[in-house]
Amino acid sequence: GTVIATSRSDYTDLARGMGVEYIPLSDPARFFDKDLDVIVLATSIVSFEGTVKSLLPSLRAYIADSTKGNGRGPLIVDVLSVKDYPRKILLDLLPQECDILCTHPMFGPDSGKNG
Q1: From CA 12, how far away is CA 22, in angstroms rounded?
Q2: Bridge partners of residue 77, in order along the sequence
Q3: Shortest CA distance to 40 belongs to which of 2, 81, 76?
Q4: Kind of pairing between the strands at 4-5 and 21-22
Q5: How far is residue 39 from each of residues 52, 74, 114, measured CA to CA in Å?
Q6: pTM of this prediction?
Q7: Contact 3, 21 (CB under 8 A)
Q8: In this predicted model, what pLDDT tens digit does every residue of 55-110 receive, in sequence order?
Q9: Phi, psi angle pair for 75, to nearest 5°
Q10: In 1-112, which ranges are E strands?
């Protein structure tokens, strides 16, 4: 698959070196033009709500565009270490056409092995 990255900071060269396309967070419409299936939100808890809000206008436009997404939004994945806060933000703010997955950054088959 294709990986598209975005951030407030310019990671163009780093992304290119990993075979990833970088689009500045300041251009969310261009980000959504990539017809994304999954968006992983990897941000600090302090920035989380603002980041989600900054994506909403372009996300809604993407869903409304009949040539993209088939009326569905992408799966939005959060990787914060807390779950209640991001879950509430995502459920309260995201259009109902989006699915969400709240996961922990340390999740894995061995993460609960010994309790």
Answers
A1: 5
A2: 40, 101
A3: 76
A4: parallel
A5: 11, 7, 31
A6: 0.83
A7: yes
A8: 999 999 999 987 776 778 999 999 988 889 999 999 999 999 999 999 877 765 65
A9: -75, 125
A10: 4-5, 21-22, 38-41, 75-78, 99-102
